UniProtKB/TrEMBL annotation:
Domain HAT C-terminal dimerisation: 509-573
Xref: Pfam families: Dimer_Tnp_hAT (PF05699)
Name of the molecule in the record: HAT C-terminal dimerisation domain-containing protein
InterPro entries: HATC_C_dom, RNaseH-like_sf
Signal sequence extent: none
GO molecular function: protein dimerization activity
Superkingdom per UniProt: Eukaryota
Length: 600
């Protein structure tokens, strides 16, 4: 083995200092921080590097290179002598992986226990030892991932707060629920106009309510947060809640308390909750049919053995599905999905009940009148589920589409009109609107008794009445017309303060062409109507409003994954922020604000 070469102080004239790696001196260029092998400690090799890599510095003095050496020593170098850029990349990679962990709602320990070993194994197979060495330097311990997530969460919050402060209005939706550790969690989402061009929805904050969850408790949490972050109540366009007494109570509810801060704030009851409440109008005969269906499902799924036997039966019969679905009252789509699956597997269910010799359930399930009512329920709840899914919209593209309060109103009014259509058809014994029921009538020649027909009419009459009760046409019609189409509104139907702007807008041909080209309301009023400040202000205020608390429902679903029985002591605030936010953290800014550290 050849002897190790030594560094000579005169090598600084060639632009090289010395760094010790694995017990041997190696030359390091003071200009580019490149580290050469020990056998390069020869004047000829060092001079060749200077002439080929840095030719314009060949004639510089010793003092120049000593100055560069001073600058090099100030840099934060890794033990291999690599520049801070490499360490910066490992820190950036640590943030990126931590972000993916949070967005995937995984435990923080997965970084060190799974992700890093996987990367090392891939590097070993495909990239070699040098890549493995770099991967080992990425900090991904449990505490490190937690710290990264907290920093990114704070950065996202800072960005969102800055944008909210520049928005003319903002709206809130809030709800509370109990997590796996029996803690009451409050979620608050916000909708605002970003950069005066587009509406955006974000998680504003999540917070544990230490004691009760009354309207006053929620209000205290809201007030404290808004004061700490400098958000003005005057800009609150409205708030949407689930309609519980704690939220909409006339005296001590959250809505009433918010009115004390901003009397003009509009409070709304979640349109999806209202729709679910309005749908609970079944007459007794249909309620009994529903209970029978639930009883059949529960009998088959009540034991693991029955479930396996039924699955095998379905497999033997080449059925499309092999399992039934449980009914859960609190789940919006549960009834419809359960009934639809039960109807699809009705022949398999009959055979199973025969095999199990459950004559009572079999007789109920095969009764002609039950089959008629069952088919009607399948069709009815399919329509309810369809409406519910239409209402589960949001302003963010990542959350499936853009909707505003007027779009939700359209869907509800369309459904009420459908109810009237169905009533008209049923009265004439035309059941074409109900596909499943119609197939039974046409295919099996089933006869609809007058009593069942009357119960259908009674059900739909009550349903229409409930929808009208839960969805009164409470919006100012003149304002609604103005926002939806300012070019056809009668100028005498709007207030004196905006009449002249309405006239000016109606006579702006270019603007009218833009509106009629199919631009959505949000883009039109936020981007194209800037020269009409009074009209734009009214429109932005109404378009900012939430119509449902669907984002909160999504948030609670995410919370169940993040804070589960294995992580029941976790403070999920930062993880929730990254998992639910569409705003990206400014990782490079965070990297520059802190020093890199080795994995531990």
């Amino acid at each position: 083995m050849p002897p190790k070469r030594k560094y000579d102080d005169d090598y600084i004239k060639l632009g090289f200092t010395s760094i010790e790696i694995n017990g041997e001196p190696r030359p390091q260029c003071v200009l580019c921080a490149t580290v050469l092998a020990n056998d390069a400690l020869k004047p000829a090799k060092l001079e060749r590097h200077l002439k080929t890599v840095h030719p314009k510095f060949c004639d510089r003095s010793r003092e120049f290179f000593e100055g560069k050496l001073t600058n090099l020593k100030k840099m934060k170098l890794g033990p291999s002598g690599s520049s801070y850029a490499t360490s910066e990349k490992t820190l950036s990679a640590s943030f990126e992986v931590s972000k993916l962990i949070a967005k995937s709602k995984k435990a923080h320990t997965i970084g060190e226990s799974l992700i890093k070993p996987c990367m090392l194994k891939v590097a070993e197979e495909l990239l070699g030892a040098e890549a493995q060495k770099k991967i080992r330097e990425i900090p991904l311990s449990n505490d490190t991932v937690k710290s990264r997530i907290q920093k990114m969460s704070t950065d996202i919050e800072d960005q969102v707060i800055d944008k909210i402060k520049n928005s003319p209005y903002f709206a809130l939706q809030c709800d509370e629920s109990t997590d796996v550790s029996q803690c009451c969690q409050l979620l608050v989402f916000i909708r605002y106009l970003e950069d005066n061009t587009m509406f955006k929805e974000e998680l504003l904050f999540s917070q544990e309510l230490k004691t009760t969850s009354q309207g006053a408790d929620v209000m205290n949490a809201l007030s404290q947060y808004m004061e700490e972050h400098g958000l003005m109540w005057e800009r609150l366009a409205g708030i949407c809640t689930d309609g519980a007494p704690a939220m909409l109570g006339s005296r001590s509810g959250l809505a009433a308390l918010i009115k004390t801060k901003n009397p003009s704030a509009i409070t709304t009851h979640c349109v999806i909750h209202r729709q679910a409440l309005a749908a609970k109008t079944l007459p007794e005969c249909f309620t009994m049919a529903l209970k029978t269906a639930i009883k059949v499902v529960n009998f088959i799924k009540k034991s693991a053995l029955n479930t396996r036997l039924f699955k095998q039966l379905c497999s033997d019969m080449n059925s499309e599905h092999e399992t039934l679905l449980f009914h859960t009252e609190v789940r919006w789509l549960s009834k419809g999905n359960m009934l639809s699956r039960l109807y699809e597997l009705r022949e398999e269910v009959k055979i199973f009940l025969i095999n199990k010799e459950n004559k009572e359930l079999l007789d109920q399930f095969c009764e002609p009148e039950f089959i008629i009512r069952f088919a009607y329920l399948v069709d009815f709840f399919a329509q309810i589920n369809k409406l519910n899914l239409q209402l589960q919209g949001s302003g963010n593209l990542k959350l499936q589409g853009m909707s505003n309060i007027f779009a939700y109103g359209d869907k509800i009014r369309a459904f009420i009109a459908k109810i009237e259509l169905w009533m008209n058809k049923i009265e004439r014994k035309n059941f074409s609107a109900f596909d499943t029921l119609n197939q039974i009538i046409d295919g099996q020649g089933a006869d609809i008794k007058e009593e069942i027909q009357k119960n259908m009419m009674l059900h739909l009459t009550n349903l229409k009445s409930e929808f009208n009760r839960y969805f009164p046409d409470c919006e100012d019609k003149s304002i609604q017309k103005l926002i939806r189409n300012p070019f056809i509104v009668n100028v005498f139907e709007v207030s004196d303060e905006i009449q002249e702007e309405v006239i000016e807008m109606q006579h702006d041909t270019n603007l009218k062409d833009t509106f009629e080209s199919g631009i959505n309301l949000e883009d039109y009023w936020s981007q194209k109507a800037i020269s009409f400040p009074k009209l734009r202000d009214i429109a932005i205020r109404y378009l900012t409003l939430f119509s449902s608390t669907y984002l909160c429902e999504q948030g609670f679903s995410a919370l169940l994954i993040i804070k589960n029985k294995h992580r029941n002591r976790l403070d999920a605030t930062a993880d929730m922020c990254l998992a639910l936010s569409s705003t990206e953290p400014r990782i490079q800014k965070l990297v520059k604000s802190m020093q890199s550290q080795k994995s531990h």
